[in-house]
Amino acid sequence: xxxxxxxxVVRRYIWxxxxxMTLYVAFLCLAxxxxxxxxxxGAVAYLLAVLPSIPIIGTIASVGxxxxxxxxxxxxxxxxxxxxxxxxxxxxxxxxWGFLENFVAVRHxxxxxxxxxFCFFVGIFTxxxxxxxx
Amino acid sequence: xxxxxxxxxxxxxxxxADLAERLEVSRQSVNAxxxxxxxxxxxxAFKLARLFETTIETIFTDEE
Lengths: 134, 64
Description:
The complex is a heterodimer of chains A (134) and B (64). With 134 residues, chain A is an all-alpha fold. Chain A folds into 2 domains: 1-70; 72-134. Chain A has helices at 2-37, 42-50, 53-69, 73-103, 114-132. Chain A is flat and about 55 Å long. The model of chain A has no long low-confidence stretch (mean pLDDT 92). Chain B has a single domain (2-53), classed as Orthogonal Bundle (434 Repressor (Amino-terminal Domain)), CATH 1.10.260. Chain B has helices at residues 5-11, 16-23, 27-34, 42-51, 56-59, and strands spanning 2-3, 60-61. Chain B has a two-stranded antiparallel sheet. Chain B is globular, with a radius of gyration of 10 Å. The model of chain B has no long low-confidence stretch (mean pLDDT 93). The interface between A and B is medium-sized, with 15 and 17 residues.
């Protein structure tokens, strides 16, 4: 029974996350094509520019909802720890890169890359932390 | 924190999966608690105590 409930929580999380990512791709394509085609101005330009970030916020919300719905404290702990490690690694990497940008000629890192970087680090740390508890 | 979960489980001939099912947690959780790598919250410790019809102090010992 627990397996079924757990699967339901995980399935809901995967569904929300996937739906957000699908919307992200769609909104990003729309924004890119609109800005390439013409030169939207005013409120439309702002709306189109912000559009791809809305599903990104959706993925953050889906993680928050998962943490709220997951009753297994061990699974919650592992995810929270992974995210803390992910935050630490992202802050460290962006700080180093920021100073490099300031003083040496390295490529500018776009701020919207920070979130994928965070996801990347969480993806690395989660299996490592799980292995620690085995 | 050391514990007697493995012994208590063996006495009832329960697998980690059986205990996980009864506690409504994942098998990984039971394994992490059993090996002393994860300390359960007070509510989960009480749940364990109720399940094994004993006290928390009988299951867990406050030593590294």
